[in-house]
Amino acid sequence: MSDAQRTIRVMVVDDHPMWRDAVARDLAAAGFDVVATAGDGPQAVRRALAVSPQVLVLDLNLPGLPGVQVCKELVGADPALRVLVLSASGEHADVLEAVKSGATGYLLKSAGPEELIDAVRRTAAGDPVFTPGLAGLVLGEYRRLASGPAPAASSNEPKAPQLTDRETEVLRLVAKGLSYKQIAERLVISHRTVQNHVQNTLGKLQLHNRVELVRYAIERGLDDA
Known about the structure:
- It is built from eleven helices and six strands.
- The model is unreliable at 150-158 (pLDDT under 50).
- Strands 2-1-3-4-5-6 form a six-stranded parallel β-sheet, sandwiched between helices.
- It is of the alpha/beta class.
């Protein structure tokens, strides 16, 4: 277990106490720092704002406040927060709504403990993590949105931010679905350098997470380049 994993602060939100406790226990046993749990929407928002987790493992079906609203509020308050939805529902509408509200990953509850642990680790690293079959759905939706009519350009709009050649290259590989590790190997640079390029690109484009970055790249056809 790496030191990086040991310091990842995770919060688990689910309205079923036995399930919530089991997930928290599995993550703690794997070395994550489980800083809080919550059983309903309003409690989740209050506690997350108080303890500032890096990764929120979130069920969508919550009393008091729906999971998508919890996600929207907390990502709005802290754009650096990563949200991994852990849901019993594989309905396409639920998946897309979760992603649009700011979730960076979506895992079905049928996943095993090892799959969950790996998903939390990858979510913390900024990778979009989806149960197999759902990633294609999300990318397909982004393609559909991207192929719609473009908004009329306003003369008052600022010019598009300029990315360096290397930032564009990294962005193209992100859009193709490569992990940071794969990008680092492809470009023969360090994992940290890839992260720095992604963070710089997010800042320039005023985007919040890697999922938004993928959408940006697809809208500009970089995934086909």
